Amino acid sequence: MTATAKERGRPRKFDRDHTLRQAMEVFLDRGYDGASLGDLTTAMGINASSLYAAFGCKEALFREAVDLYVNAAGPRTLDALAVRDVSARAAVEAMLREAARRFGNGRGCLVVLGATHRTADNEAVFHDLTERRGQTQVLIRQRLKQGMAAGDVPTGTDIGAVAAFYTTVLHGLSLQARDGAPRKQLSAVVDCAMKAWDGLVPA
């Protein structure tokens, strides 16, 4: 067997972490449904058989890409809610400001925009992203509940409705960014959202 034949028979070696990051970039740009196998393999620099061997299938690859995205972007956006030495209002505002800063790159959020319509081909992915978005609302609600215990959110406030409102703002920032809104416009949306706080959380 010639050296060339031996090389063809060897498994192709590649940096799995790097290829996963490249796949994440494709999904950010095109979403789950819009990212073809060819788009992914070209960006990742591997062939289809290597993709399947390393990641299993497109759905499994997407789930890993979302995990990578959340671990990279999620902490900076949602960690603001975990800060205890500020008011609930300040924590929610910090979350939105960080989102406006990050989404201002024009790509929005993979968890929000990765699969916006449920189809027969993406139902499991759609369900997974729906659960992840719901968890964000849970975290906001928990922070409001902590604020109520600390006394900066009045007893009787409908924290479920307030959490739903600010989750909607957070997700809307992602959509606005994908549609081309600059950071200045996203920041103005946050300004308006925080002006609504006094009506939603009366003193």
How would you explain this protein's 3D organization?
- Helix content is 73%, strand content 0%.
- With 203 residues, it is mainly α.
- The protein has a single domain, classed as Tetracycline Repressor, domain 2 (Orthogonal Bundle), CATH 1.10.357.10.
- Helix 8 (123-150) packs across helix 9.
- It starts with a helix and ends with a helix.
- Mean pLDDT is 90; it is low at 1-10.
Write the layout of secondary structure elements.
Elements lengths: L2 H7 L6 H19 L2 H8 L3 H8 L2 H21 L9 H16 L6 H4 L9 H28 L8 H20 L4 H13 L1 H4 L3
Helix pairs in contact: 2-3, 2-5, 5-6, 5-8, 6-8, 6-9, 6-10, 8-9, 9-10
Distance between the termini: 81 Å
Could you say which overall geometry the principal axes of the C-alpha atoms support? Answer: elongated
Tell me the helix content.
Answer: over 70%
**SSE order in H/E notation?**
HHHHHHHHHHH
**Overall radius of gyration:** 21 Å
Low-confidence stretches: 1-10
Q: By helix and strand content, what is the structural category?
A: mainly alpha
| CATH architecture term | Orthogonal Bundle
| Count of distinct structural domains | 1
List keywords for this structure.
203 residues; 73% helix; Tetracycline Repressor, domain 2; mainly alpha; 11 helices
Short description:
This protein has helices at 3-9, 16-34, 37-44, 48-55, 58-78, 88-103, 110-113, 123-150, 159-178, 183-195, 197-200.
